[in-house]
Amino acid sequence: INKKNNMRIEIKEKKLFSKLIKNKFDLNISSSKVNAICSNSKLIEENDIFIPLKGNTVDGHNYIKEAINKKASLILSEKKIDNRKIINVGSTIGTLNDLAREWLFFFKRPVIAITGSNGKTTTKELIKKIFNKDKQTNCTLGNFNSSIGLPMNLFSFSVDNHPIILEMGASQKDEIEYLCKIAKPDYSLITNIQNAHIGNFKCEVDLIETKTAIFKNTNINGFIIKNDDDKNIANYDCNVRNKINFGFKNTNVDFFGEYRVNPNGNYLTVNGKSIKNIINLTQILAKNMLAAYSLASVYGISHDMIAEAFEEFQIPNGRGNLIKKNNYTIIDDTYNANLESFKMGIKNVSNINCIGKKYIIIGDMKELGVHSEKKHKELGKFIEKLKINYVLGFGESIQSTIDIIKNNQIFSKYFKDKNNLIFFLKKQIQKGDILYFKASRSLKFENIIKKL
What we know:
Shape: globular
Distance between the termini: 34 Å
Number of helices: 15
Largest sheet: 9 strands, mixed
Strand order of the largest sheet: 7-8-6-9-10-11-12-13-14
Structural class: alpha/beta
Low-confidence stretches: none
Strand content: 15-25%
Mean pLDDT: 93
């Protein structure tokens, strides 16, 4: 259990939750005693439902007394405790997921499910933006997409909102299949499949099978939306009747995209129809937009409504945002990092025309396990072929990337101290420069940006 799973989610439909508890446990709880569902005792407020979870180092059951003292109205527990507020269960995680699955019976379908190695959160937010042009949707928050985060998210849903838009993440084998048993998709989309966090999988085959489980578990009369540019997805087949494909490489797809760089602003074309007024459009964002466009169009939403949503879209923080500061430009791509997203982001910077220098400030890629050194060196080999002026690294593993760069046209330097890196940047940056920041979440590179 990690910080991503330490959550407190307000329960919107309190009367329905009371009904769920009655159906599940034959227990009456007044809707006035239903506030939020919580997995972190520190966050508990009066009338919350506390679900203690067992992690590798912490067991939430040790904090049940604290939950009682904070006036939680209901507590699930694997430990036998004689208290009127406690429901004894075999597995708190299993019970949470059972409740979430039964909870969805109260809500209108369809279920739209999105996964992928890169871009799934941005694509989900794009789809949400499109649907919200017409009606309010039920959508998972942020990137809480795990076997704990996703089911807890469901309790924030409102019965009047639809469709249901879910982001599904996989940090271990078969996790997508597990999530699909909670919410079987009617529409499913995979943005791409890369060796993003292969450290948690035995091999690439396990990773591909885990991701494509979202297609396999889609309703047979539903729709699967396939990225034809991704070899791991393009040839996948299953029994779902409606298979839709999209891509930039092959014109013989249902949704063919063209990303064009123009002096007056970049624009995206889908099946010959242009969308021109997209703020800060990059090739990476264009890929996410084509995926979202394909799904929304199949659902029945018009080109004009999709285009309007794209034109209004604000990129989520840390996912390639452009920040103008003191006559230079920062690209904030600090939310997370893996090899493929690194390559896409840095290549995008390399292709930008600017009057100043191009800096890439990079940190470790986590969750690579035994592949870490190899992947970090591969990143260095990739960078040294591009039009970059400065490569600056901070972190434990990124030194392998810096050390392997042998291009004399690139100034590369590894920093052991973050403050020294900030000091160096402040001395070097000049008008017209571009600074690209990227690292895995735990390195908190956004704090470097704040100090410039």
